[in-house]
């Protein structure tokens, strides 16, 4: 009995700790907007979006921003401050993206974290979609046939 209580507490603790991480599953070629919803310190030096120890985008306190050369053609900046839109994601873009603010006093403040998984289209999904389309078309034809027979019966009765 006590083992279940301990496991329940662990699940609750894990759920509370993981609330800051946004998990996202995307298809290859999709776009993703990375948002900063946390409060950025008033006197920040810069805000970075980091992926695999690489600074993808840096926002400086003077309004300048710089983009890593690997992402230059795939980054846009939505209206929301410090947010980044990554375009045409590939499987290699899977991983953890973190945003952090760094102050002139040397303090850093985590702002956002996204765990991103980019998957290629699976054959199972394609086969499923084809089956659904075939089923839907068959259903439409069957309903059309039933309506036609019903209308024909009505016309016969009225003659």
From TrEMBL:
Residues 1-20 form the signal peptide. Gene3D superfamilies: Immunoglobulins. The chain crosses the membrane at residues 128-152. The keyword RNA-binding does not apply. Residues 25-118 form the Immunoglobulin V-set domain. Keywords: Membrane, Signal, Transmembrane, Transmembrane helix. This is Immunoglobulin V-set domain-containing protein. It comes from Zoarces viviparus.
